[in-house]
Amino acid sequence: MKPDTPLAKRLAEAIAEKHLTVEQLADRTKVHRSTLLALLEEPINAVIPPRIYLRGHTLVVARELGIPVDEAASLFDESYPEGGDDSIDLTGPRFPRAHVALAAGLGSIAILALVLAIVR
Model pTM? Predict the structure, then answer.
């Protein structure tokens, strides 16, 4: 998938110039891989942090890639204006409902097992 926003294009170019993978960049910056993929506009199923944190992660990544921080901040604000129609869903989890239901069910079973173990 080719990136559409100026930020995604700039980040992809810098990653290619540095001959890095997303995994290597995640290790260097401690920014989660799914967040990096979201910034690069790759299709993912993950929880994306709120806009303010995403902007901060962008600046950390930019610094590591040698992109001036003011340029990265400007590109982020241009690509994802505050209150604008973001192409990245910044409102909450993007996990399939079946996965959430399964996790809730397993959590309930774990709590029930814990209660039964204490009662005995």
Answer: 0.65
